[in-house]
Every structure is written in C-alpha cells, then in structure tokens.
Amino acid sequence: MKAMTTINANGHMIHILPVIKGLKSETDKVKDAFEKVQPNKVAISLSKEEIEGLRNLPDDYEPELSRYEEIYVSRLGRYGEVAAPPPCYVAAVELSDHFGIPLVPVDLDEVSYTDLYCAAVTGSALFRHSTRTWALRHRSFNAETPEEFVMLWDRVINGMQGFRLIESKRVEAMANGILDASKNSKELLAVLELERAQEVSELIQEAL
After folding, report:
1. Dihedral, CA atoms, 117, 197, 156, 47, nearest 10 degrees?
2. Where are the alpha helices (DSSP H) in the chain?
3. pLDDT digit string (tens) for 184-203?
4. Measured between alpha carbons, how far is 105 from 43 in angstroms, rounded to an integer?
5. Which residues contact 125 (CB under 8 A, 6 or more apart)?
6. N or C: which end of the chain has fewer CB within 10 A?
7. Angle subtended at Cα 185 by Cα 182 and Cα 189, rounded to the nearest 5 degrees
8. In 10 A of CB 191, how many CB atoms?
9. 16 class by beta-carbon count within 10 Å (0-12 exposed, 13-18 middle, 19+ buried)
10. Rounded Cα–Cα distance for residues 5 and 197 (Å)
11. Which residues 6+ apart lie within 8 Å of 8 measured at CB?
C-alpha cells in the first residue's frame, strides 16, 4: 500500500495514509491528505507518550540514534533528505493541533509495549538481533524507491519470530484503535507507518 486508501466502515469513512518515517518529503503527503480528506479526527501510529514527546520537543533537540537507526537513516538518505523525529508524524501532530482536530494514538503504550517485548523476545533472539548491525552495514538493499527499501528493511529487522509477534500485536492494536475512533467520526484520517499500513487495512476490512 503506497497511496491513501479509503474504507467505508458502516458509513464512517476511514482514510489510511501510509507514510515513510524519516523522509522530509513525506510532510507534503500529510498536508495534502489533510486538505483532501478534511478529517474531523486523526489516528496516528504512535503511542500517547510519543505524541506528548513530539508536542514538547526542546528547541535544542538532538536525536539519539541506535545503531540500527543510524544504518536506516544512512540508507534512506539515498532517496531524499532525512530528519528526526519523523517529519510525517510531526506534521500530523502540528496540523491536528492547529485545526483543533482530535488526535488519537493507536499504537501500544509504553508499558504494554515493554511487557510484550519482554515476553516475546528471548535472550538468544535479542543477542542475535543486536549483533546483526555489521552485516546490515554491508548489505545491499536493491530498492529503486524508498517504499521498496522500507519494506525490505522491515523484513530484515522484524523477521525473527519474537519481533514478528510484536509487530503483529501492534497491527491488532492499531486496527482496533482506528475502528473504535471511527465510530463517532465521519471522516477519519489514519497516518500509519508504511510497514504496517497494509496489514492494518486488511484487518479492519476483515472486521467489518
């Protein structure tokens, strides 16, 4: 899923916008979606804590990137200028706040995510995951577009069983959150990370 798609949820319209985390150019995609949809509610694939973090960024904010994030930024930079925090999310939060549109976090909150991570990822899996950065630095991602790269990256990073389980639970949480938010919303815009957007869309349609 690359373009925005619309799902009719019993008369409540859900517009799912896949975005690429990091690319500055995604800001325009978010602005265009707000203008086109004119949403009266916005859902976003962030936790409530992450939204508050974006709203309270210090002026001298400097991102602290993990080794995986450093490699991701380096590779994504081949397709355009990259920034942190993700410009797509910053734009969605700022536009929602500017127009007074309710913004609904639909990702797992920090406590739920931490509990799930501890239960799903074994010590051996965590060790293997943490030692793969050297190979990633030398891996060739044959992707012509940023969308292709992001999906390839996701398959490599979240391919292990425990990490895949986490992403599956995130998809469930996002789909349920969007469906719940849509019940009293005529036009709901869901700004979702590209990696999970298709799965969320399919789960929503299965539930209708």
Report:
1. -30
2. 26-37, 48-55, 67-76, 87-99, 110-120, 123-130, 133-137, 146-157, 161-182, 194-207
3. 999 999 999 999 999 999 99
4. 6
5. 160, 161, 162, 163
6. C
7. 70
8. 31
9. buried
10. 10
11. 14
And the tokens for 84? Answer: 């942190």
- Pull the structure tokens for residue 88: 């797509």
Consecutive sets of 10 residues in the chain, 208 residues long: mean pLDDT of each?
Answer: 87 97 97 98 97 92 87 94 96 98 97 93 72 74 94 89 93 98 96 98 96
Tokens of 149: 């790269």
Torsion of CA 76, 84, 111, 68, to 10 degrees: 40
Asked if 153 and 140 count as a contact pair (C-beta separation under 8 A), the reply is: no
- Residue type at 108? L
**CA dist., res. 204 & res. 208, Å (int):** 7
pTM for the model: 0.94
- Partnered with residue 44 across adjacent β-strands are 105, 191
* Sign of the torsion formed by the C-alpha atoms of 83, 85, 86 and 91: negative
